[in-house]
Amino acid sequence: MIIGVDAGYYATKTSEGIIFPSRITTQESIIGDGCSIMIGGKKYTVGEGEVTVELNKINQELTKVCILYALAKSSDDSEFSIVTGLPVGQYSKQKDALKNMLLSSRFNDVQIGNQKRLILIRDAEIFPQGAGALFSTNIEGEAVLVDIGGRTVDICLFEMVNGKRKLTKYSTILEGTLSLYSKVVHLINSKYETGLKLEDGEKILKSGLEIYGEKQDLSFLKPVIEEHTEAIFKELTLNYPIKTTNVALAGGGAYLLQGIFQKRIPSSRLIPDAQFANANGFRKVGESLWQRF
């Protein structure tokens, strides 16, 4: 089976529509074995535990566990040809190491609940995040792709060179949504004496905050959000042709920030199924590499 897996810092997604938090723990799950996996005799609970902010994914136990769990949940197949990605700024230096990590343990005996399975990674390829997202959509011609993830924001410029679209400029900045959630939760905890956690930041920014049943005025967060996004707009304004080129938004953070983007860059548009754009694009890359008919 050819599959795309976007092993993000905040959430892991596959081209089969599977999504779960990129967190693991070896502590027993309080909700049963539905989100646990046994690998090599070691049991992990997936979707629980601490959020990682470690940029380097190579040789991380978290990366391997999340990818194997994603494959197991996506299909009953035992053989997989997988395309996954790295932040575009880390791609050149780390792609070979990540590919070798996946292929060095091709055969994996796993168990989910009472079901034992063999997962074979037959082929693996690594592709730049952001570039993968563009493959998932039908944008034509030149484009600036902004992939807003949990830990990073990947920016890619695609230009037409000799009649073909090529990635000609790229950058990665550490202004993903996890950083914003952390700032928001810190301010709210200080103001209201609450004990909210980092992962609560997403729900607050989407749905607001109630204290003892009363909706709170969160307008004091506006400067923090503006300061956070300003770093992204500065990079775009100084280094990318955003006035004359299509700007496409992808990643889970794109839903949250699309309104701000459209005020600053009116031509910016959200890619369909933006959160799964990389995973879906990775699958198309895999099909072009390995599909025989």
UniProtKB/TrEMBL annotation:
Residues 145-259 form the Actin homologue MreB-like C-terminal domain. Residues 4-132 form the Actin-like protein N-terminal domain. This is Plasmid segregation actin-type ATPase ParM. Pfam families: ALP_N, MreB-like_C. SUPFAM superfamilies: Actin-like ATPase domain. InterPro entries: ALP_N (IPR040607), ATPase_NBD (IPR043129), MreB-like_C (IPR049067).
